[in-house]
Amino acid sequence: MLLIKNIGVLQTPAGSFAHRGPQQGQNLKLCNAAVLVEDGKIRSITADGQLPEGAGRAETVLDAACRLATPGLIDCHTHMVFGGYRQGEIPLKLQGAGYLDILRAGGGILDTVGKTRAAAEDELFEKSMGFLDEMLALGITSVESKSGYGLDQENELKQLQVNRRLQEAHKMDVVSTFLGAHAIPPEYAGRADAYIDMLCASVLPIVAEEKLAGFCDVFCETGVFDVPQSRKMLQAAQKLGLRARIHADEIDEIGGAALAGELCAVSAEHLIATGDRGMSAMAEAGVIADLLPGTSFYLGKTYAPAREMIARGIPVAIASDFNPGSCPSLNLQLAMCMGYLKYRMTPEEVLTAVTVNAACSLGLEARVGTLEEGKQADIVLWNAPDMEMLVYRFGSNLAETVIKNGEVVKA
Ligand code: NIG
Ligand code: FE
User: Fold this and answer.
1) Per residue in 22-72, pLDDT tens?
2) Domain range spanning residue 125?
3) 200 CB-side CA count, 13 A
4) Cβ distance 134 to 103 under 8 Å?
5) Are 257 and 286 in a shared domain?
6) CATH number at residue 95
7) Which protein residues are within 6 Å of ligand 1, measured from CB?
8) Rg of the chain, C-alpha, whole Å
9) Which ligand is nearest to the CA of 146?
10) pLDDT one-digit tens code per residue, 256-283
11) pLDDT in tens, 375-401
12) Which pTM value belongs to this model?
């Protein structure tokens, strides 16, 4: 058993459901708290200087020195398995080329596709293991990983296989998403419909059969996949038991968020350009908004209308979007600061966004996302007395101690 005592404030959302509207800002705050961990799970939580029953039998005692404790952070949107990097794009971007201009010219995602196809599975695995180590040290204890840089059967399956190996080899919980429809590969230039048909007929059945992903995603965007193509892909995936999520309205509002509502997708992601129709459909269907402020920053775009979404009763999650193009940062703490300053979410709303709502967006809510008895002991002690401090400092890593599955992985 592990006893964590002398926690200044233990702050957590409560319950295993997506928090919407006023619930988004409701966190439980326990002062002078202690947590007793047994077999990787939270056995009990006490407050006001009381120690849990059985605390005396703990083999390990951790003194939190009055620090803030929260659930481990959950990054519910990343593209973390990729070959190479794309630092060469920045000068083009600074000269005025847009994200979609670079993609149209065969760069952007397609540049990473070339490098990912050329990389051996082991190479991708080792590189991603390094990213997971970095994330864990930042207080992230669960993460989503999308494919989408293979864009053919062999290389999409290679990326998903890397996801499987990461989940098995690393302490982090890794949730795999199939994003075969991330861009139109060069072999299918001008034939997006044929590419979607190929994915549905040949790749998706293998992904489902071999349980290589629990989710299917599509990049629904101008010049990439339109609404009918996205609908076809996601419905085919739903039929095979995968849950739907969608890159929607990142650059143009072409109806991706409305489609998420129509299909009862688990989440719609980005939503920078989403307006009334998309938000109404999402609110009605209970779709989670996975917002990615780091991408707005990096692409020089506006920020998703988070306050309006919360007011309309849409549960909001915040994620990094870590990828080699539109957001080469895996620092979710930085995204949390942007959630505070740019989305104008309260520190409590931000914590809900990166814990329980992110867990719901990945289907992990029964196990992680809150500090409650019976949940997995994924806990971070912060070098901060309160959430206000955590979202105020930016650029530093404030994760002092990280506990994953009851094991101290960063001390
Ligand atoms: O979420 N927009 C599509 N996909 C990623 C970017 C991928 C890339 O640029 O390599 C995103 O922003
Ligand atoms: Fe993305």
Assistant:
1) 999 999 999 999 999 999 999 999 999 999 999 999 999 999 999 999 999
2) 74-361
3) 18
4) no
5) yes
6) 3.20.20.140
7) 79, 108-109, 112, 219, 247, 250, 295, 321, 323-326
8) 21
9) 2
10) 999 999 999 999 999 999 999 999 999 9
11) 999 999 999 999 999 999 999 999 999
12) 0.98
